[in-house]
Write a structure and sequence with these properties.
Strand content: under 5%
InterPro entries: Haem_Oase-like_multi-hlx (IPR016084)
Structural class: mainly alpha
Helix content: 55-70%
Order of helices and strands: HHHHHHHHHHHH
Radius of gyration: 20 Å
Number of strands: 0
CATH architecture: Up-down Bundle
Largest sheet: none
CATH superfamily: Heme oxygenase-like
CATH topology: Heme Oxygenase, Chain A
């Protein structure tokens, strides 16, 4: 039987927010204001110190009158809405259904190999973000100075946050450290022990290879600005789908905590999941601004291709790890 995650009617998270109801299965229409999230762990586990200090950098007026017209906010929102019906959202539903159905008597044995995949997958997005930055930087001498600079000013923020760097704050734990804390609180052993076993995370490695190939080739573009537009579209898809990914994963693990972990006396460290569930929408908003600062309106098809490419490959990854859970 499917869990509540996939059985719910797609009424929309935005509608749920207006009513004060938490929804994990609805189709979103950006921009979205999320409803306040119920905290399962103690107050000290909420991401107050890790919460994103959002600084938006809007497009300044360029003195270059010959620049192409930029893409509009409405066009970006429309492209994102296509992802709501995409393959990744369906794969994430399947994964979370399987996650919530973990057998109570052998959950650790089933889940541990999946964490091996998730560990590599999590870190692989950092070089992907860096590659997106590089593709924009490589338009030096070709793209407009101001547009390029403002796009990069946006893009650098989420990447810095992955390493605990936030505006007006001392450097905090990296997201890899937070993931290791989460893992240790569940399994009672260190993440380093899991990595040291040397089992290849084949699905995560394949996804990374595809991301690296697609971003650094600009989706096959020969024009540097078109290649950068592709990279920005790819980044947009990563951040947009990550909001679904981490929000639903947090909800699923909270269900598991109620059904299994609390009864075993585990004190789950929620910070990793809470940071991402609360922060991904803001990261996506920063990605919006990077696109709005740089991408010509004529490159809408380029953005769509990039977003569909990532949707395809991320879906394959989550279908694979869902199968790992379902086989037990």
């Amino acid at each position: 039987m499917a869990t509540a995650l996939s059985a719910k009617t797609c009424t929309g998270v935005a509608a749920a927010a207006r009513k004060g109801v938490r929804s994990v299965a609805g189709v979103r229409h950006a921009p979205v204001v999320k409803a306040p999230r119920k905290v399962v762990a103690s107050a000290t586990a909420t991401p107050a110190k890790e919460q994103w200090s959002l600084t938006m950098h809007n497009a300044p007026v360029s003195t270059n009158a010959n620049l192409p017209k930029l893409i509009s906010k409405e066009q970006v929102v429309s492209l994102e809405a296509e992802l709501d019906q995409g393959a990744s959202v369906a794969a994430l539903r399947r994964f979370n259904d399987a996650l919530r159905a973990l057998p109570a008597d052998r959950w650790a044995a089933v889940l541990r190999p999946v964490f091996n995949e998730l560990c590599f997958n999590l870190e692989s997005f950092n070089p992907a973000f860096t590659s997106c930055l590089l593709m924009v930087q490589r338009t030096i001498g070709v793209s407009d100075y101001v547009r390029r600079d403002m796009a990069l000013k946006n893009l650098i923020q989420p990447l810095a946050g992955e390493y605990g760097m936030h505006n007006n704050q001392p450097q905090l734990k990296t997201h890899r450290e937070l993931f290791a804390d989460f893992y240790a609180s569940l399994f009672g052993t260190s993440l380093e022990d899991l990595i040291r076993e040397g089992v290849a995370p084949a699905a995560a490695q394949k996804l990374w290879a595809q991301m690296n190939r697609d971003i650094m080739s600009g989706g096959g573009a020969t024009d540097p600005v078109e290649g950068a537009s592709y990279a920005l579209g790819y980044n947009l898809a990563i951040e947009y789908l990550a909001d679904y990914e981490k929000t639903w994963m947090l909800d699923s693990f909270r269900d598991l905590n109620t059904r299994i972990f609390a009864g075993e006396g585990k004190q789950v460290d929620w910070v990793f999941l809470e940071v991402h569930a609360e922060g991904e929408a803001e990261h996506a908003a920063i990605g919006h601004n990077a696109v709005l600062n740089f991408v010509p309106e004529a490159h809408v098809p380029v953005l769509r291709k990039a977003m569909r490419d990532h949707d395809r490959d991320m879906a394959a990854f989550y279908n694979h790890v869902a199968s790992m859970l379902e086989q037990h």
